[in-house]
Amino acid sequence: MSPLKSKAVGAAGATYGHIFVGPWDHTHAVRLDVSALTLEAGSGGQVDEKGYLRPGSVIQIDAGGTGGAIGDPPTNADQRAGIVPEPLKIVDFDGGETVATAPDLDVAVAINCAVNRAIVEDNLGRALTAAELGALANGGVQVLS
Fold first, then answer.
1. Are 57 and 34 in contact (CB under 8 A)?
2. pLDDT tens-digit readout, 9-60
3. Distance between CA 105 and CA 87 in Å, rounded?
4. Is-contact 56 83, C-beta < 8 A?
5. DSSP result, 71-103
6. SS3 of 95, please?
7. Whether the Cβ atoms of residue 142 and residue 111 lie closer than 8 Å to each other
8. Per the count of CB atoms within 10 A, which of 1, 36, 56, 129 is most buried?
9. Maximum CA pair distance of the chain?
């Protein structure tokens, strides 16, 4: 019997860990203003260098259903946030698109679930802020250490 052979099947790039602890079955559709997201060459931005929204990105769900990156703590009890469950291509850099020119789009964010904080922060390349943690708690997302 010959040993298992492995070979590279694609170009190297970012891989992301699975953020959920246990099942997740509740999502909420959010209209996302892509131009409000950040892109950083290294890490920490919601959009990676290949144009994907990082899994674990925290997306605010306003009372009116509009989304945007959490920058400030929620200002009322109606504000809550969900978490992006998997990488989602939102910007076509190869086609000359930029974060500022990308169209708004609807994304599904997970709510009422549990996530592993270490994996979320590893995917994002930064620590979650107090505002993000508070908004996730309002959205029913339990962040486990």
1. no
2. 545 556 899 999 998 888 888 888 787 777 765 556 788 888 888 899 888 8
3. 14
4. yes
5. -S--SSTT-EEEE--S-EE---GGGT--TTTSP
6. helix
7. no
8. 56
9. 65
